[in-house]
């Protein structure tokens, strides 16, 4: 097996999803072209956080006074739903790039560009997550209200999803228009957006159909594989490594012979995520039951707990 592909497979066997709590603070908004003694070259997550303000600033096509309210809303949305969460796709892009790029080309300039590309993918993912919360009716995400729960009833967060995903395309065009693989990168992010929205549609329709019909055939492995491919497989195991390869001018034909390995990984990963979520829900229900029994034994009413 090619050494680069072997390294990519090893990366996927590790925990690449990192949290904001480990990243420290967002770095000061200095000019992207300036050098900095604090440049976190050897820390992938801090490297991403260093460039987040630039990725938001350069996702906005206009800063005219008549669109000030729109820009403020966009900025608020990006900082509310963007960095303070698990970052899967972006860290994979950055880690893959540092693995397959030659040591001579791992310059500060190229690492900056890799970080911007990571946020192109991650900002698209942000839109996907907010969309999931809307479709599934979630109220809480990452221990705080979902974005759509913070808005007045007459406002829609679907527009915010479109803005951040369109902004990701503008960000790509700004920084990579002169890259030799720009057409491939542009096509990749378009396919990325298409796949995640298709996956959301399949997920929603299957869930609704099963809720109404209780048809067990809807839960077949064939449907599960299709759903997981669009919602998890393509973003993490296709788009992210291919994006890093295009950036490094790496021969992407070496990736596809290992595609069947990645298919097994994303199916296993999604099953593990669902199982962990189920176990967490069961623990919460058991905890609520035990607390209720304790309150009743103390002569308290369960409503008092809910009020608190």
Architecture overview:
The chain has 308 residues and is mostly helical. The chain has one domain: Farnesyl Diphosphate Synthase, CATH 1.10.600. Helix content is 66%, strand content 1%. The chain contains ten helices and two strands. It has helices at 3-12, 44-57, 68-81, 89-100, 108-136, 158-176, 182-213, 221-247, 259-297, 302-307; strands spanning 140-141, 144-145. It has a two-stranded antiparallel sheet. The radius of gyration is 21 Å and the shape is globular. Belongs to the FPP/GGPP synthase family. GO terms for molecular function: (2E,6E)-farnesyl diphosphate synthase activity; dimethylallyltranstransferase activity; metal ion binding. Its cofactor is Mg(2+).
Summarize the structure.
Its cofactor is Mg(2+). The chain is mostly helical and 308 residues long.
Specify the number of helices: 10
CATH homologous superfamily caption: Farnesyl Diphosphate Synthase
The CATH topology = Farnesyl Diphosphate Synthase
Second CATH tier, the architecture: Orthogonal Bundle
How many domains, in number, for the residues?
1
- What are the low-pLDDT stretches, counting only 5+ consecutive residues below 50? 12-34
Helix percentage range: 55-70%
By secondary-structure content and strand pairing, the structural class works out as mainly alpha
Global Rg: 21 Å
Query: Secondary-structure element sequence?
Result: HHHHHEEHHHHH
Pathway: Pheromone biosynthesis
InterPro entries: FPS1-like, Isoprenoid_synthase_dom_sf, Polyprenyl_synt
Keywords: Magnesium, Metal-binding, Transferase
Family: Belongs to the FPP/GGPP synthase family.
């Amino acid at each position: 097996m090619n050494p680069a592909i072997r390294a990519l497979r090893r990366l996927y066997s590790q925990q690449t999803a990192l949290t904001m709590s480990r990243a420290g603070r967002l770095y000061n908004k200095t000019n992207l072209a300036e050098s900095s003694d604090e440049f976190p070259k050897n820390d992938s997550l801090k490297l991403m956080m260093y460039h987040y303000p630039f990725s938001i600033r350069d996702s906005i096509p206009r800063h005219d006074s008549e669109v000030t309210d729109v820009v403020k809303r966009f900025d608020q949305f990006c900082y509310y739903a963007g960095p303070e969460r698990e970052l899967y796709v972006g860290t994979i892009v950055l880690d893959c790039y540092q693995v397959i790029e030659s040591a001579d080309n791992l310059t500060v300039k190229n690492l900056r560009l890799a970080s911007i590309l990571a946020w192109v993918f991650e900002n698209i993912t942000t839109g996907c997550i907010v969309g999931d919360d809307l479709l599934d009716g979630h109220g809480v995400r990452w221990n705080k209200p979902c974005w759509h729960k913070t808005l007045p009833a007459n406002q829609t967060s679907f527009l915010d999803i479109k803005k951040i995903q369109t902004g990701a395309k503008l960000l790509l065009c700004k920084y990579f228009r002169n890259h030799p693989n720009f057409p491939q990168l542009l096509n990749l992010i378009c396919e990325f957006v298409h796949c995640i929205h298709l996956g959301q549609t399949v997920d929603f329709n299957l869930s609704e159909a099963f809720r109404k019909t209780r048809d067990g055939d809807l839960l077949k492995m064939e449907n599960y594989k299709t759903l997981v491919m669009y919602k998890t497989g393509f973003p993490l195991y296709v788009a992210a490594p291919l994006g890093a390869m295009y950036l490094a001018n790496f021969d992407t034909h070496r990736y596809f012979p290992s595609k069947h390995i990645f298919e097994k990984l994303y199916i296993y990963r999604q099953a593990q995520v669902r199982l962990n979520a189920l176990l967490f829900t069961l623990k919460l229900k058991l905890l609520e039951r035990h607390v209720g029994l304790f309150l009743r034994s103390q002569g308290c009413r369960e409503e008092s707990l809910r009020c608190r």
